[in-house]
Specification:
Helix content is 3%, strand content 47%. With 153 residues, the protein is mainly β. Strand 3 and strand 4 (29-34) form a beta hairpin. The radius of gyration is 16 Å and the shape is globular.
């Protein structure tokens, strides 16, 4: 991590076999999700690194995104019945669903939510963002626009 205060790069103590799927800056900290374990890694401004495992992990998760949404940090998980369904060309014909959770900073846990406060979540393989649906003509509140790994929406 590079901090302008130090004017140098600093190595962070992170588990060597971590494979981060999503990394985002939120309220002065960096958050990352490990693809294999689902653990959340938090890098503090002091460069202290902590991890936490969500209290209700989902074994159906195939892909995760971290999305900032106003003053909230969301974890969006794409789920399929089995792992094979995620890698086949006709993924749109298979049953997929999304689970959305909001970070509870005090408990270091993710709480499942039913809506995203009127926002639209845009998810692509390597990035994500959110906007108010009312700011974009033609979009419905609390919806997800997913650009699949095969280039389809």
């Amino acid at each position: 991590m590079y901090r302008s205060v130090d004017e140098r790069w600093t190595d962070l103590e992170i588990t060597p076999d971590s494979f981060f799927e999503g990394i985002v800056s939120f309220k002065g900290k960096f958050y990352a999700i490990d693809r294999h374990t689902g653990k959340t890694t938090v890098a503090e401004p002091t460069l202290e690194v902590n991890t936490f495992q969500r209290s209700r992990p989902c074994d159906k998760t195939r892909k995760r995104w971290l999305v900032t949404s106003r003053d909230k940090l969301l974890l969006v998980e794409m789920c399929t019945k089995n792992r094979y369904d995620f890698h086949i060309p006709n993924i749109r014909e298979k049953k997929i669903w999304f689970e959305i959770s909001e970070l509870d900073e005090e408990r270091n846990d993710w709480d499942q939510v039913e809506d995203v406060d009127g926002r639209v979540l845009f998810l692509e393989h390597h990035c994500s963002f959110s906007c108010l649906a009312s700011e974009i003509p033609g979009f419905r509140a609390n919806s997800i626009i997913f650009h699949g790994h095969l280039g389809r929406i």
